[in-house]
Amino acid sequence: MRYPLIILFLVLQFATVSFGQYSIRDPKAIPLNGEWVFAMDPNDVGETGKWYREEAPLNRWNKVTVPHCFSVDPRYQFYTGTAWYRRTFPWQPTTGKRVLLHFDAAYYETVVWLNGQKVGTHEGGYTPFHFDVTDLLKAGANTIAVSVDNNTWKVGTIPGSKDNNEPNDPFPGWVNYGGLIRPVYLTVEPAVYVENVKIEAMPDLAKGTATLKIKTRIRNTTGQTNAPKLTFRVEQAGKVIPLNWKQQAGPAANQTVVLEAETALKTADVKLWSIDQPTLYDVQVIAGTDTVRTHFGIRKVEVRNAQLLLNGQPIKVAGGNRVVDYPALGSLEPDWLIEKDLRLMKEAGMELHRLTHYTPSETVYDWADRNGMLIITEAGNWQITPRLMDNDTIRTKFRQQFREMAERDWNHPSVIAYSVGNEYLSEQPAGQRWTKDMIAYARELDPTRLYTFASMRLNILPKKPEDEASQYCDFISTNTYGNHANILKHIHSLYPDKPIFISEYGTRADGNTGEAGQVTHLEKFLSDVRPLPYVIGASWWSFNDYLSRHDGTNPDGTRPWGLVRHDRSKRPLYTTHRTGMAPLTIEKISWKPGPEGTHALTIRLTARPDFPAYALKQYRLKTGTTTQLIPDLQPGQTTDFTLPVTGFDKTMTVEVMKPTGFSILTQTIDLTNDTRTSNR
Questions:
Q1: What region holds the Glycoside hydrolase family 2 catalytic domain (predicted)?
Q2: Residue 8 CA: distances (Å) to CA of 98, 259, 432, 546
Q3: What domains does the chain contain, in order, with CATH numbers?
Q4: Which run of H or of E encompasses 343?
Q5: What is the pLDDT of residues 619-645, one digit of tens each?
Q6: Residue 218: alpha-carbon gap to chain centroid
Q7: Digit-coded pLDDT (tens) for 234-282
């Protein structure tokens, strides 16, 4: 069958290969990262002046390293406008092959030239795109030139300026970090090659089996009918799983088609993916001479009776909004920063995230897949006004960016839902039309995910459920910054069958009560939320401090909302969040001194019955160099441990470890006769 035109482009997910500090998912990649030359173009004369010509003088261009964010380079700091990148690379032509030029992201409007010829354009700052450059390459040195315009402070871009003429309100809530912010590379493909693969792995929880569907998008660039037979190789932990496939025939001449194949996995071959057992499968799709690789997880996510179910079990977990911003890097995301941030989040009890208002590097999702996180990923409608939401051009741009995001991320088991925007006027007709239409469009692309958007209007509105766009969502996402108990009860009265995810809450560290106020705010929040069974998650705004030019930003350019500061140093809030969002508690039960310095400490571990709450399996208790397995616990269940203590120490530190090896709770217990303990 022909594949819908709305999803004809985008690079396939592949196994990850590291080039320098940045991973590229395609092992066939020929990286163009590294040294380029760079020039600002504030008067937009580069194209008319033909800066893309091979013979154009470069004596006033500066050397930079790509990926590159020019907004944090001291020479071009906070420049807004067009900038140019150039480099040469050697090439030896290949016969019967296609060569694709890939950009994992460039912010925001990009124009590409190769050897003096325009290759193409792209709009959107956080999603990947590629061009076929086969016919423009030549033997020897090739010159690539790229112009990138980061001006999203105008009406018509996504994100972009509003059209409401309010003072100090033209900017999105984060800096418009410009440049070639993610890897650039080439791939060499056969004349008939795989453009994309979509994996749909659905378990039958009652039988313990699973159905696996693979949709392979194949591009035939020849003038001849070519029907390569598809073969598949699925592995789990290095073991090949024998499977029998039902599949379609191949493509005709000069066509892009999607071929579907389906198989069944037996009970013995099914291992479910979850936040504590993030089991992944590797798959190879072989189409003629082309082989592509990706991974997937088998898991079922659904909402029912105001609950979020993962593999049939209710789950309630905390999360955080991570803004892609780091000192001297801006929106660059080297592998070490992703590892640093997500590890800090995981160990702070952040498991279910609406990360931010745009899609981060795909390495984020790879990490979440391997280590167990649930992610709601969001495309760029950030407070778009009603007039703009009804504008056909804006709608087309949003659909393009959403499609690029979804096609890149749809094989990641960590991605459980998509959001179609943040904080727009969802009670107005334009907001309702946008929500209904964009969710319908998105479901055509990927019917396997849940859908939502982050509303700020439910705090005061509506009086009837049909008066606000959350009626079209699978679950409610609300940005609520106070009066939590009353507002959440009101939302539940409107939508009693829909679970509620608090997509933003929090308070700044520079308020009247300072950093201590963040701690008390979280403690009050937990006391309000824990009695409410329909709250499935709460994502603190924000995990990290970030730079902004939005109204309310400090004179130093920061917005200090974070558990961690801009440099990722921890605030007191980090420890409070870690303890409060751990899925279990530790209580001292008794302390019995014994003869000759041998004593016995009894502690009680309780799986939280309210929030966060989910089944705990294969957790471990660590004391010093000793680790013990904690019996499996359902929410509300307890277990006691009697721990031997020798010597004359007055305290003992115990630590809870997840099956994935992350430390999520550390508690120091007083070994005197009282029962005081301290958490850290």
A1: 301-520
A2: 17, 14, 28, 36
A3: 30-185 (2.60.120.260), 192-299 (2.60.40.10), 302-581 (3.20.20.80), 584-670 (2.60.40)
A4: helix 335-347
A5: 999 998 899 999 999 999 999 999 988
A6: 27
A7: 999 999 999 999 987 766 667 888 999 999 999 999 999 999 999 999 9
